[in-house]
Amino acid sequence: MLTQHIRRRFAVLALGGLMAACGGGGGGGDSAAPAPPVAAPPPAPVVEKPATRAEAARFLAQASFGATEASIDRVMSVGYAAWIDEQLALPAAPVHRTYWETRDAAIRAATPGTTANQDQVFESFWKQAVTGDDQLRQRVAYALSQIFVISMVDGTVGENPRAVAAWLDMLNSEGLGNYRSLLETVSRHPMMGVYLSHLRNQKADPRTGRVPDENYAREVLQLFSIGLVELNEDGSARTNAGNAIDTYTPADISGMAKVFTGWSWACPDWPDNSCFSQGTANGNSDPDRSFKAMLGYQQYHSTEVKTFLGTTIPAQSLGDPTASLRVAMDLLANHANVGPFIGRQLIQRLVTSNPSPAYVRAVSQAWANNGSGVRGDMKAVVKAVLMHPEARRVNDTSGKVREPVLKLAAYLRAFPHSSDTGFWRVGNTDNPATSLGQTPLRSPSVFNFYRPGYVAPGTAAAAANLVAPELQIAHETSVAAWVNFMRDNVASGVGQTNGTVNGVALNRRDIRPDFAAEIALANDATALVERVAEKLTWGQAGTALKAEIATAVGTIAIPALNTGGTNQAAIDTARRNRVNAAILLVLAAPEFQIQR
């Protein structure tokens, strides 16, 4: 009976509620251009400290993978800005590659002939997301992984999981550095090179008709820097005679493509041109070439005039890929569009789908000048995103739909969880019918899982000029799958079952919850639901919702202890079932699935 209630009531409520919370429902569409921004609310003073634990938890939903009791305590103690500063001061370390290499060595030793694979990238991601101290750094890196996209769905990238782990480390490090450095590091990373085909890209050859591959040149403009149309500081489109102004032309792409010729693998014998093809020359190769920055090979770099975005690199007597790249990166990093274009997406990934013009402008200004005359300081940008008054208050258009990965992370952090193996073996969660429909670093294309300007056409959201990017991957099947997936995870634990501990095979899920505090309240359905709603929604769940869930939970009878005490196991099972039901029903509700 309760299972039917869950499926019928909340699978429908969740999808309907998500649509309603975002201003509409139904339909489908896709747009890379942002919708016209909503009007700015009246300015408000910056709030330095949360007044309640719910406010602290709301902040942590934006700045981390989810609130824990300990992280709430810290924010309550030191305030928002000091917590951010503490997080920014934590050093970046190659945790993901180190983890992958350690696991690879152990797997090879245990089973000769086998190696670590993509699963170990997922393990490291989830371990850091759930247990890592540097939550802000990891959360920003995840956001950037959805802007600067590579994907292990691609065969060549997927065959190099060690390099993908190193890519994630790079985003951890560069993501809170300077954008100029980040953009060049992204451009020279071999996994980006193979994903967008500028690794081993060669200059034009008139004899064969070969021309430089334009794939990366197009995407670095469209997705990684300046976008499709010229923007004002507040993110609104600049116009000419009422029409948006394109940021670049096909000729600009062709000119930029020449910059990205002659780049290939790092190699011990560089600049020996024989390294260009496979990163090997004279029998020497670099075992780390899959993640070391690509190097420029003079012979393969275009010497032609390179003209793009109003800048011209004169013809070169000898190809100089490093000099050409420097000009292109400097130009893009200093382009007026970068602040509002990338800044708005960071707001969307961390805080709200529909920031006001004033919000975007404030972040753009922080991008242009960190207060010390430095442009592109990502620490200053992230702080501006999180500390803006609009981020610290709730209104009718604030917030965003929680994507599946962030929903699972929030659940795993809301209640104490531990990993039997220590590996956090969540695994691949691609399947939208039986799992999350989303796996970190496995987007279907360079355009991410969803587009920043996604609007469901013909809906109230579209009429109100509101975007809801994450709804692009939400549909009836995925909403029902979330309920079914989490019903199993809450009851039985999360992750894979085929692990071992000290050579002993496991016969249960790897990631185990500790619901002791909730079980202690199970006899009182109202008190139990109040606690669960607080842990998962932090004030967003209303009285009516909590009452409905408590009524449903109360239908699970807890037997009285009999005289001999022989039915204690049945009592314990009933209490746990009440806890499972309360958690699942809150997880299915829009009040959890919308991050306000």
From TrEMBL:
Signal sequence residues: 1-20
The organism of origin for this protein: Rubrivivax rivuli
Identification of the protein by name: DUF1800 domain-containing protein
Presence of the UniProt keyword Coiled coil in the record: no
The UniProt record lists the keyword Signal: yes
InterPro entries given in the database record: DUF1800 (IPR014917)
PROSITE patterns in the cross-refs: PROKAR_LIPOPROTEIN
Keywords assigned by UniProt, alphabetized: Signal
